Amino acid sequence: MSDANEPEPEDPFVAHRGLLFTVAYEMLGSAADAEDVLQESWLRWAAADRDDVRDPRAYLVRIITRQALNQLRTVSRRREEYVGPWLPEPLLTAADVADDVVLAESVSVAMLTVLETLGPTERAVFVLREVFDVPFDEIAAAVGKTPAAVRQIAHRARDHVAARRPRIPVDASEHDRVVERFIAVMNSGDVQGLMDVLAPDVVSVTDSGGLVRHAARRPLHGAGRVVAFLQGSIAKLDTAFAVVPMRVNGTLAAGVRVGGVLLAAVSFAVEDGRIVQVFSVANPGKLAALDAEAPLAR
Fold first, then answer.
1. N or C: which end of the chain has fewer CB within 10 A?
2. How far apart are alpha carbons 93 and 104 in whole angstroms?
3. pTM of this structure
4. Can you give the pLDDT at residue 168?
5. How does pLDDT run across 216-261, given as a tens digit for each residue?
6. What's the chain's average pLDDT?
7. Is the distance from CB of 8 to CB of 286 less than 8 angstroms?
């Protein structure tokens, strides 16, 4: 006999779990918070009268969105007290995530950082409409607005994101080539090579949650400052380090290992063959989700 607290294998919740996790993660930027939302949503789904559910997928997306909105309002207060910059929790992703260009861009650390500048309802509307192509009337039911209001919110959110997303779309192969160069020069110690792969106005942001000694607690601006900081950080190490390739949030990223232990996951935004943004997550609590590939779906 199955546990009443667990969905059956053929249950719609199981069938759409990847989609539901992705919606929650894109709204929250945290795998741990997304899992909490999934658990709460499952309890509500289990208690629902299935005879009244005509479209299980739409119904489940509505539940997930409402729970994620509640969670987002809670964690936004927590993030205001966070020490240093806050970045999304990185996810280990399969290589084929990059094949879905819309999904890969939407879960990229660069995009999730932009989504952090939206209000909770704007973020929910943007994610549901632009990423998952949910009809306006279904979004309205999920966020408690009229379809007309949702259309206006979607327009504002789209303009807001467009003004802040990368100016020039970069295909995956160019992004990979640039990141591979970064990994190579970091491992070889080629300072000039590092300067060459970074844009002169590169910005580097590190999220350590105040838990890592010597981590930058403010963004670093300019290739010279970024390289100097990296050189200083490496000089403080008394154990061998290696920079290794990882597939994080749909794109090639870099993992920094010291003594075989993963200490940071580093994602990048690339323009014109150079790195323009560096996103380093070094908070140990945020690296837990990199143990296994995340089940992303759209």
1. N
2. 10
3. 0.91
4. 61
5. 889 999 999 999 999 888 888 778 899 999 999 999 999 999 988 9
6. 92
7. no
The three-state DSSP-derived secondary structure of 115-166 is HCCCCHHHHHHHHHHHHCCCCHHHHHHHHCCCHHHHHHHHHHHHHHHHCCCC
**Under 8 Å between Cβ of 72 and 93:** no
Q: Which residue has the tokens 């509500």?
A: 44
Three-state DSSP state, 296: coil
Confidence of residue 297 (pLDDT cuts 50, 70, 90): very high
- Of 109, 134, 18, 127, the C-alpha closest to 72 is 127
85-112: per-residue pLDDT in tens?
Answer: 999 999 999 988 988 989 999 999 999 9
Per residue in 105-132, pLDDT (tens digit) is: 999 999 999 999 999 999 999 999 999 9
Q: Which two tokens stand for residue 103?
A: 């999904």
Contacts 24+ apart (CB under 8 A), 12-15: 12/56, 12/57, 12/60, 13/41, 13/42, 13/45, 13/60
Bridge partners (DSSP) listed for residue 253: 246
**Cβ–Cβ under 8 Å, residues 186 and 260:** no
Rounded CA-CA distance 16/53 in Å is 15
CA distance 109 to 271: 15
**How far is it, in rounded angstroms, from Cα 95 to Cα 99?**
8
CA angle 71, 37, 261 (to 5 degrees): 95
- Cα–Cα nearest to 113, from 246, 282, 249: 249
Contact present, 178 and 274 (Cβ < 8 Å) = yes
276 burial via Cβ count (<10 Å: 0-12, 13-18, 19+): buried
SS3 content of the chain, % helix, strand, coil (to 5): 55, 15, 30
What is the chain's length? 298
DSSP state of 253: E
